[in-house]
UniProtKB/TrEMBL annotation:
Residues 16-92 form the Transcription regulator PadR N-terminal domain. Signal peptide: none annotated. Gene3D superfamilies: Winged helix-like DNA-binding domain superfamily/Winged helix DNA-binding domain. InterPro entries: Metal_resp_DNA-bind_regulator (IPR052509), Tscrpt_reg_PadR_N (IPR005149), WH-like_DNA-bd_sf (IPR036388), WH_DNA-bd_sf (IPR036390). This is PadR family transcriptional regulator. SUPFAM superfamilies: Winged helix' DNA-binding domain. The lineage of its organism: Bacteria, Bacillati, Actinomycetota, Actinomycetes, Kitasatosporales.
Length: 215
């Protein structure tokens, strides 16, 4: 099942709608609520562009002005609420994201697909650095989760759990690849090494189209 093409694709727009589903707010309050509820750990939030996101949501009829607050000499604050169309869009968008696996393009996958341009020993060194960083990140994440469990119901921490599991899974995979590189048991590593040490493309790789060894 394919996901529907949406009028707005910025995940921050979805986060704004989900926040306004709680109650009407002005943009600064939306930003504060997202930060307080920890949504900045799972959604890339550019607070400088949040006002633009709100304006775009209003343009498409997903949010509307519900009030304008005036307090003494302070500037007016426009309060926005979620419209019925916005609630429908939010629900459909959330349903797509939850149910339909989307093809994503993490930059690490790009690096892996092109790692042949580096010497295997250099890749081993770099992946060792990555593994060390991942292990630190995982240990820190586990400690933070234990602390959070003391004050928050688990339902509010599932995205943090997911992030931690993804870090741990990546660390496990990198650890296995490093073992194969160090042992020389990774299929093709001998030819990969030969390419870098002689400058000649091994016959086994010459027929490969669009090889990442080719410059």
């Amino acid at each position: 099942m394919a996901t529907k093409r949406r009028k707005l694709s910025n995940p921050l727009a979805l986060a704004v709608m989900a926040t306004l589903a709680q109650r009407p707010m002005h943009p600064y309050e939306i930003a504060q609520t997202l930060r307080r509820q920890g949504k900045d750990t799972s959604t890339k939030i550019n607070y400088g562009s949040l006002y633009t996101v709100v304006q775009n949501l209003e343009k498409h009829g997903f949010v509307e002005v519900t009030d304008v607050e005036r307090a003494g000499n302070r500037p007016e604050r426009t309060i926005y609420g979620l419209t019925e169309a916005g609630r429908e869009e939010m629900t459909e968008w959330m349903s797509d994201l939850m149910a339909v696996p989307a093809r994503e393009y993490p930059i690490f996958e790009t690096a892996l697909s092109l790692m042949g341009v580096l010497h295997p020993d250099e890749v081993t060194r770099l992946l060792t650095e990555r593994l060390q960083a991942l292990e630190v990140q995982a240990a820190s994440g586990r400690g933070a989760l234990r602390k959070l469990y003391e004050s928050l119901p688990r339902i509010f921490l599932v995205e943090t759990e997911y992030q931690l599991h993804m870090v741990e899974a990546q660390a496990e995979w990198v650890r296995g690849l490093l073992e194969e590189l160090r042992e020389g048991s990774l299929p093709g590593v001998k030819e990969w090494r030969t390419f870098h040490e002689t400058g000649e493309m091994p016959p086994e790789f010459q027929d490969l189209e669009d090889s990442d060894f080719k410059q």
